[in-house]
Write a structure and sequence with these properties.
Keywords: Ion transport, Transport. GO terms for molecular function: proton-transporting ATPase activity, rotational mechanism. It comes from Flavonifractor plautii. Pfam families: vATP-synt_AC39 (PF01992). This is V-type ATP synthase subunit C. This protein has 352 residues and is mainly alpha-helical. It has a domain at 98-200: V-type ATP synthase subunit C fold (Up-down Bundle). The protein is built from 19 helices and no strands. α12 runs antiparallel to α17 (289-305).
């Protein structure tokens, strides 16, 4: 324990200071009650947990204050905090700590592929981040790419390059199936993290890391099956296996195949009653399963943030919780601007 305190003590202290600035449940409720997005933006400028990024956007800098603009500016807060925490991370933990960079690269690649599919941006190119990160992705080339080959070239130095090359259709100018591409990139992401965990960690830290990754994958696979059964009920069982992550933690392969072969959503829920996650989905509607996933990840990471002694996962847990805080803020923005229902239960949990 003494060695862990010496190695991660400064990192843990920095995280405690940042976590103390988080938005609380009553903050979320107050923000959700504001009249418009301009009031919301001004309120967040005054909050210590989000003011740094918004200080990079001077008042009046946007001709239009929309969800995309606000989300981009708020996401810069995550980038700033990632950079500040990186200074305290021991050298041997740097590869794992870069999980956010790899996730950012994956999101950017999928956004570019979606744009190529539709032939245009939804409205206009998203605003460039004011907080650059050291990505392996050629962001400029990706933003201007007009073909899959150009996308491949922009991703040539990333962990996703081999997968993207494998997905390249044989017909010139064609694009890969988006759902399969999304599953393949997520699989490459988790495979990369698994290799790091098995290669560099042992003991309690490895156990916590493997549980964090494993439960995420199990829950995401269950959610994928429930979505397909609900919205694409004619999907063949073989197709399910192509879009699920080929990893198992508490769900074994036979059980996963049984979920895929179930005739419908109700049958999936019946099977889940005999699974290690039976308490998770008891009485949960299909539309709420994604929020359950977020709640489960939130509870797990809150426990790890308080765990003694600290480890590199203390930083991972904090950044995951900050990402959840952002997701609640996005819901608040949509609630204020578009009248989307405010997710008070999740906000209360994140804001505890």
């Amino acid at each position: 324990m003494k060695n862990a305190e010496m190695t991660y003590g400064a990192l843990s202290a920095k995280i405690r200071a940042l976590y103390g600035k988080r938005l609380r449940a009553d903050d979320f409720a107050r923000l959700a009650g504001l009249k418009n997005e301009a009031e919301l933006l001004e309120a967040l400028r005054q909050h210590p947990g989000w003011s740094r990024a918004l200080s990079l956007v001077p008042p009046g800098a946007w001709s239009y204050v929309g969800r995309v603009e606000m989300e981009g500016a708020l996401r810069d807060e995550l980038r700033l905090e990632y950079r500040s925490l990186s200074y305290y991370v021991p050298r041997e933990d740097k590869p794992l700590m870069q999980f956010q960079l790899r996730a950012a690269e994956r999101s950017a690649l999928l956004a570019a592929l979606r744009r190529l599919k539709t032939g245009r941006y939804a409205k206009e190119p998203p605003p460039t981040s004011a907080v650059p990160l050291r990505l392996r992705l050629d962001e400029g080339a990706l933003a201007s790419c007009t073909s899959y080959d150009q996308l491949l070239d922009a991703a040539r130095d990333t962990i996703y390059a081999p997968v993207l090359r494998h997905l390249r259709p044989s017909r010139d100018g064609a694009l890969p199936d988006f759902t399969l591409a999304e599953a393949a990139l997520r699989t490459a992401y988790f495979s990369h993290l698994y290799r790091i965990v098995h290669r560099q960690y042992t003991g309690r830290t490895q156990k916590v890391l493997l549980r964090a990754l494993g439960e995420q994958i199990d829950l995401l696979n269950i959610i994928h099956v429930l979505r397909l059964k609900t919205y694409f009920p004619q999907t063949e069982p073989e197709t399910y296996l192509r879009v699920l992550f080929p990893f198992h933690y508490r769900l074994n392969p036979d059980f996963t195949r049984a979920l895929c072969a179930a005739p419908g959503v109700d049958d999936v829920f019946v099977l889940l009653r005999d699974s290690p996650y039976r308490d998770c989905f008891d009485g949960v509607a299909v539309g709420a399963v994604e929020e359950y996933y977020q709640r489960a990840i939130c509870r797990f990471n809150k426990r790890q943030l308080a765990a003694v002694p600290p480890s590199i996962y203390t930083a991972v847990a904090y950044l995951e919780l900050k990402e959840l805080e952002l997701s609640v803020l996005i819901n608040v923005i949509e609630s204020v601007k578009y009248g989307v229902p405010y997710r008070a239960e999740l906000a209360d949990l994140v804001g505890q």
